[in-house]
Amino acid sequence: MRCPECDATENRVVDTRSSRGGRAVRRRRECTVCGSRFTTYEYIEDRPIQVLKRSGAIEEFARNKLLSSIRVACAKRPVSASDMERVVDDIEDALSRDASVEVPSRKLGALLMEYLRPLDRVAYVRFASVYRNFQDAGEFQEFVDEMAALQEREELQ
Question: What residue intervals traverse the membrane (predicted)?
Fold first, then answer.
């Protein structure tokens, strides 16, 4: 491993533990040249998840793109980085268990909405406004009204 600070290859492992539900090994390393500490992850190489875009193009699943979408939806909300990472981990696990080779981007968006709703309702609405591509304020208001009615039903149970 190269040190991200000084680019040296001499480092030692300070701590090792299981991570991401046992799907990865997390290692804390310390550069023996500059003393900088950094984290590395080791993963089992899975079959790549392919995302079928609306245009018909196929892209490899990009964990960072999904995490970026979650960060935008959760901006200025009380959602921790670890909660966001956990959502991405859970979605990635769900996609890995799916037998299909290609996952439509619509399915990926719907799956993200399933995980965002219990995490933070404002983030859920923010993401839904992009995912569902509301054309006017009326469509948006209908969605928010549905959310409020659903929340009332849940609170009564």
Answer: none
